[in-house]
Structure formats: structure tokens, C-alpha cells
Amino acid sequence: MATKAGPDEEDIRRKLGRTIVVLRERSGMSQSELARRSEVDRAFLNGIEQGKRSPTVPALVKIARGLDSTVSVLTIGIVEPEPDRVWNEAAWDKAVLLAAHLPIRVSVVGRLRADGIAGRYWYCRVEPPMECQLGEGVYRDHIHPDLLSADRGTLRLEAVVLSPTASNQVLQPGITDLTVHVAAVLDPSVGDTGVLDTAKTGYLGYAVVDDAAAASDTDINRDADPVATASVIAAQTDA
């Protein structure tokens, strides 16, 4: 049986380094300031940002705290296999900046039926809705007009579809650190039909979900009741 190869160490270091750079620059911090806040040597931090050095787990925790972030945010998506993809630094940077819009709160409405598509999918409302700028090269004709601004330059993100990256996992009360795929709902009819239509969704990337409600003793091996509320705390698209 063929197996899917994961990224090599260089690819992981490169993605991690760029993630730290983007989040640091967004916060207006110099490399020296982040090193001071993280209590790590600046030369060591420079090597990490350049993708030449690998941090220890304690060092990564310190850097995450220095960025007022989490290890989950720094590492989401960096170990996904991408054997056929070419590194695109600009695309990765934009993906990391998506985290600047987060956390966002979503209310889980229920499961979507996905005929002929593997996986489990949940339809979720974004509360409050989020305004997303669309680049010039983004195709818009498949986006419902009610979700587009008058100049067609902004998408009003009112709902998303979440799908756990592991097929044996489900959204349930008390769930934490659940890695999911996130797709923007581009047509409200998806929620009305209860059926996943990939032509009416747009992939955003990976995310980590934490249930904001109190944990329960729901059996994780069965399809549980929907989570009342949850926070998507990190999201990145593939480079």
C-alpha cells in the first residue's frame, strides 16, 4: 500500500520560521524585542526565522508566549504532506495573516450530508459575521450576491463548514485542540438543504477548534450532539 510522504525537515523549519516572522511583524515587534520577550538568544531566533535552526519545545513555547500566541497557532498546517506543491512564500504569508482575523466564534448548527464525499462535515454560523477582502484574481461568480458588497470587493462571511482532519473525530461538547479543515460558505442555501455542495464553498485552510462550553462526558466514538459554541483559534491555507 502506498503511503503519502510528509514534508522534509527543511520545509517544516521554513514554514515555522515564516509564521513567526509574519506574526512578529504584524505585532510591530523587532526581532530583538521578540527575543527579549521570549527570553531566547536573538541569534538563535534569527536562525529559526531563517528556517536554519529548529527550536526545542520549551523554546517554541517561549516564542509563542512572546508573540501573545500559542504553539498551536505557530505550528498549524506546517507538517501536512505537500509532495506536489512548490513553496510559495507570499501565499504562506497571506495564510498566516488569516490568523489576524481570529479568534472567531462559530455556532454549530448541525451535520451536513456529503454524498460521495469522504469525511464528516458540520455547518456553522459565524458570530458575528466577518468581512473578508477579496483579491483581484479571486473568482466571484459562484459567490451568492447577498454575500458580496456592492463593489464585489468584500465577502461577508456568515457561515463555514468544519471537517475534522482525522476521520474518527467529531465536534462534541468539551472538545479542545481539534484540527479541522475550514471552508467558507458562499451560498446560504447550503444551510437550508443540509447537503454539502463543494461548488458553494471555498476552502480557507486548517484551524484548531476549542469548545467554549463546559466539557461533557459525551462518548467520542459516537456522533455526538453539536457543540453549542466554539472558537476557531488558528487558520492557515496550504502554501
Largest sheet: 6 strands, antiparallel, barrel
Give me the strand/helix succession. Answer: HHHHHHEEEEHEE
Content of β-strand: 15-25%
Principal-axes shape call:
globular
User: How many H/I helical runs?
Assistant: 7
Q: Provide the low-confidence segments as ranges.
A: 1-6, 213-239
Spatial gap, N to C terminus: 27 Å
List the helices and strands and how they pair.
Layout: H1 9-26, H2 31-38, H3 42-49, H4 57-66, H5 71-75, H6 89-97, E1 104-112, E2 121-133, E3 154-164, E4 178-185, H7 189-193, E5 201-211, E6 230-236
Antiparallel strand pairs: 1-2, 1-6, 2-3, 3-4, 4-5, 5-6
Helix pairs in contact: 1-6, 2-4
Written overview of the protein:
- The protein is built from 7 helices and 6 strands; from the N terminus they run H-H-H-H-H-H-E-E-E-E-H-E-E.
- By secondary structure, the protein is α+β, with helices and mostly antiparallel strands.
- The protein has 2 domains: 9-98, lambda repressor-like DNA-binding domains (434 Repressor (Amino-terminal Domain)); 102-236, no CATH class.
- A hairpin with an 8-residue loop joins strand 1 (104-112) and strand 2 (121-133).
- The two termini are 27 Å apart.
- Residues 1-6 and 213-239 have low confidence and may be disordered.
